[in-house]
User: What shape does this take?
Amino acid sequence: MDDITSQKRSRRGGGRDARRSARQSSSASSAPYLVRKIPPVDMLSDEACEIIEHNAETVLEEIGIEFRDDPEALAILKDKGCDVDGERVHFPRSLARELCKTAPSEFTQHARNPERSVVIGGNNTVFAPVYGPPFVRDLEGERRYAKIEDFNNFVKLVYMLPGLHHSGGTVCEPVDLPVTKRHLEMLYAHLRYSDKPYMGSVTAPDRAADCVALSKIMFGDEFVDQNCVMVSLINANSPMTWDDTMLGALKVYARAGQGCVISPFILSGALSPVSVAGTLTQILAEAMSGIAFTQAVNPGAPVIFGSFASSISMQTGAPTFGTPEPAKVLYGAAKLARRLNVPFRSGGSFTASKTADAQAAYESAHTLLPTVLGGVNFALHAAGWMEGGLVADYAKLLLDADQLTMMDSMAAGIDISENGLALDALRETGPGQHFLGSSHTQANFETAFWRSSLADNTTFEQWESEGRIESEQRARNRAIKMLNEYQPPEIDPAIDAGLRDYIATRMAVLPDSDY
Amino acid sequence: MDDITSQKRSRRGGGRDARRSARQSSSASSAPYLVRKIPPVDMLSDEACEIIEHNAETVLEEIGIEFRDDPEALAILKDKGCDVDGERVHFPRSLARELCKTAPSEFTQHARNPERSVVIGGNNTVFAPVYGPPFVRDLEGERRYAKIEDFNNFVKLVYMLPGLHHSGGTVCEPVDLPVTKRHLEMLYAHLRYSDKPYMGSVTAPDRAADCVALSKIMFGDEFVDQNCVMVSLINANSPMTWDDTMLGALKVYARAGQGCVISPFILSGALSPVSVAGTLTQILAEAMSGIAFTQAVNPGAPVIFGSFASSISMQTGAPTFGTPEPAKVLYGAAKLARRLNVPFRSGGSFTASKTADAQAAYESAHTLLPTVLGGVNFALHAAGWMEGGLVADYAKLLLDADQLTMMDSMAAGIDISENGLALDALRETGPGQHFLGSSHTQANFETAFWRSSLADNTTFEQWESEGRIESEQRARNRAIKMLNEYQPPEIDPAIDAGLRDYIATRMAVLPDSDY
Assistant: This one.
C-alpha cells in the first residue's frame, strides 16, 4: 500500500511521510477491520440453498427484473444474452450467475491513510456508521433536522471511534444544503475530517462523477483508475426493479473501477414475500441481476452482494427491527453470497425506538450479533441508527460503536494455545484459592477480557453518588468531550486547496434545488 | 402425563379435571419449552474438546477436588474408587466420566399442570427467571430490600409471562422472613401462585427435605418418588471445592430422585484462570466431580451440568456481563456437556447496569443470544436479573421475558416448505408491486413474524403524543396492570390446606434466625 505514499509525494511534493507518522502515533490504535476466525452460523443447509438458487433462477428467467428508464442498461443486458421485453429483462437460466463470475471474491478498499485500508470479503467484517437519516438526535438529546455541522461531527466521531472501520457515506442528510450540492460537502468531510475509507454519492450520475473526481484529487488519477477507493450504495427498488438513478450511479462507479453495494431493500411482507425463504429467493434474484449488470458494464469491477432486510408489523404496517425473521434472512443471504463467491453486506445496529433505551439496545444487539456470527463482510448502519433509520443519534453512535469493539474477541474464537489452556495456572492455584495473583493472571490480565468504554460496572452506591447517570447520557457526555478534543488528520495543503477549488467550481454552476 | 391427574383424583377426590380444563382454556397459551431445530454454534473443535477433556482429567486426578466438612461424601467417593487425602478427592483418570454415565441425557421435570411439564436436555431450552437477589427495583422503580410480597409478585408475573417456561427458585430473597423459614413460603408461592415447574431450597439439608415434603403433598408421595418434580441449584465453591451445605442439599435431592443443577460458579480471573480454555477446563472438572458424586449417591438421579461464568474487570475487580469471553465459555461448555451426554445449564439475561437502560439490554442480549445459539437446556436468570444479580427488577423481568418469546422463531430455523419458499407469491406479485395484498401474505401474515409485546414501533409523532414513554416505564406499567389482573391457577382446597398445615407445623418448630 506504500505506493499511495510515493505516488502522492512525487505528484504533490511535501513531507507527507513525516506528517503521517506524527499523525499515526497520536490516533487511536485499532485493527483496520475485523477478521473472523470462527465459522459462520449455518442456518440454511446446502440442499436448501440449492432449492432457493433454483427458484431465484426461475424468477430471473420467468418473471424477470425491470430496468427502468435506462435504455443503455437494456442494450447492455440484451447484448449479454438477456431477453428484453419492454423494460423487463429476462435472464436465461444460469446467465446471471455466469456474469457474476468476473466479480472479485474480495477486494481492498484503499483509505488515504494506508493503515486504514480495508479488505472487503473473505473472513473479514468492516463496520460503517448509519447511512441516510434526515434527522438527528443532537447533543442535547433533541430530535431535529440534520445539518452539515452534524454531518461533520459524525465524521469526526467515527474517525475517533475504534469500533468503526469505515467513515460511511450519508451519515445524515445535511438538509441545510441544497440537494444538488450536498454531496460535495459530504465527500469533503470524509476526505478532510477523517482518513478512514468512505462511500460516494448515488443520487445522480453527475454527483457520482464528482465523487470520483474529488477522490482523484486526494489519491491521484492513476491510483483511482487502478484501485478501489470508494464503495457506494446501489439500492434496488424492490421488488425486482432497478431505477435509472441507481443504474446511472452504478454505471459511473463500475466504469471507474469503484465498488458498488448491490442491495435489495426489503421490508418483508410489503416488498417481498412474508416468508424467510421467499424473501431469500427474491434477494438472490435481485442481487444477482444487479451484480451481473455491473460485470456487464465493467468485468472485474468490485461489488458487494447487499441485503437490507427488515419485516413490518402486519398489524400496523410499521417497520420492525431486531426481530428473528430478518436475522434468519441475514444468515441465509450470507451463505448464498458465499456460494456466489462475492462479498456480502447486511446487518447493522437497527432499532425502531425513539431513544437509546432498552428497546433500542435489545433490537440493535439482535441485529449486530447475527451480523458478526453470520459472516457479514460490510456492515453499514453498524452504529448510530435510530427510529427505523430516520434519525442519526449522537449518543447511540457511541453506544453502538462501543459494542462493536467487543466483536474482535468474539470473532477470534477460543485460544487453545498452552497459554490459553492454562493448566499450570490451575496447578499453581488449586482448590479454594483465587487466581488474581497467579502468574498466569498477571501475565495475561491486560488483554484477557474485552472492556466496554461506556458500561458502568461500579456498585449501586458509587453510581448513585456520581448522579445516577444512565448509559444514554454517559454516551452523550462522551460525544461532547470527544468533539472538544477532536484533532483532524493531517492533509497536504495543496490537496486540500485542490478539493476546495473543485468544490467551489462545481458549486458555482450547480443550481440550488431540492431534487 | 395423565397419571398425575388420575393419581391425584383418586387420592384427594374432587373434580380436578373440570377445573383444569377451565383453567387451561383461560391461561395464556404458550409452548411449554423451546425446541431448537438449528444446530448449536460450534466454537470449540472436537480436537480442542479432547485437549480440554484430557486436562480436566488431569485436574481431577492430579490436583483433585475438595469435598469439605462432609465425611459421608468422602466415604461415598472413596468407596467408588477415588483417592481421598484429607478432604481432597483425587479421581483416577476416567473414573469421574465413568460415574457420570448413569446420569440421564434428558429428563422430564413435571409441573402440577401437566401441560407445563418441561423436558430438560436434548434440543430443548427451558427459560427460568432470575435467582437469588436480595434487592428489588420495585413497581415505582425504587431499589430496596426484597420482601415476600415481591417474591409472590414475581411468581405471579412469571406464571403469566409466556416467555418463561419455569417458575424458578429464589426469584428474590424475601428478607422480611427469617432465613430458617423463608424456603417454606417461597415454595408455597411456587406451588400456589403458579402451575409451572419450580426449584427447591438448597440452603440446608432439612430445608431441601421440606421442599420434597411439600412437593409430595402437591403431587403425591408415589409420584414424587418416581418422577422429577424439582430441580435445584447446587453451586460449587469454585475453584475446585464443594461445601457441606451444597453437598447436604445435593444428597437430599439426589436420594429423592430430584434434579440437581451442578454449577461451577465462575468469575473468570478470580475464581478460574483468566483464559477461556483454562476456565473451561476447570468448569468441566468441577461439573464432572459434582455429577459423579450425584451418581455415586443415587445412580440415575437427574442432573444438569451447570455453568455460571462471568469475567471481572481486571482494573477494578467488579464483575462484568454481556462480554464476549463468557459467551465463548458458554459455547465451549455447552459442547463439553453434550459430549458428556448430560443436559446443560448456563446463560440468562445478565447485566451490571443499575437500571433497565441501553447497557442493561445490550449486555442481556449478548448473554441471551449465545444461550439459545449455544444450545443451553436450562437457562436460569433468563429474565429480571439486574446489577450483577443483586437486584430483581420488575420492569426488566417483563422486558427480558418479551425477548424470550422471540426465541421460538429464531430456534425454528428457516422454513423451506413450498409455502415457505413462496415462489407463487413472487409470480403473483411481480416487479414494482407490493406483497401486502397477495394471497400468500394474506394466508400467512398472522404467524409470519414474531411480534414484541413491549416494543414501540409507532412514529415519533405518535410516541410523543402518548407521552414519550421509554421501554422501561412501559414495562413497569405493564407489570402493574398484569398484577391487577392476576388470577391464580386452581388448586384442590384439600391440597392447599395440606400445604398450609405442613408449613404451620414447621414454622412452629423452626427458630427465627438469619442463617
Summary: Residues 276-297 of chain A form the longest helix (22 residues). The radius of gyration of chain A is 23 Å. DSSP finds 21 helices and 20 strands in chain A. Chain A has a mean pLDDT of 93.
